[in-house]
Amino acid sequence: MANSTNFGVRMDSDIKKQCEALYGELGVNLTTAINVFLCQFLRVGGFPFDVRLDDQPNKETIAAMLEAERIAHDPSVKHYSDVEEALQELKR
Prior knowledge:
By secondary structure, this protein is an all-alpha fold. 55% of the residues lie in helices and 0% in strands. The radius of gyration is 27 Å and the shape is elongated. 0% of the residues are buried.
């Protein structure tokens, strides 16, 4: 590399050891792996893999779920034995 620079990265020492071992099995070192990642990042215009929360519900959804649980266990709330019975109630 004709035009190179150094930068430091702080990471968990166990993660570093695991990565070094895996990359070593692939025949590359951690520096090469990071360079490959950064080149791919530039090539695709973002992360070269999905970056997302594990389908975590948002605050509104969590609130609705908690409300549904409360309603389901509230003996003062009318419960229906099936959908047809509930639909009949809505038509009244």
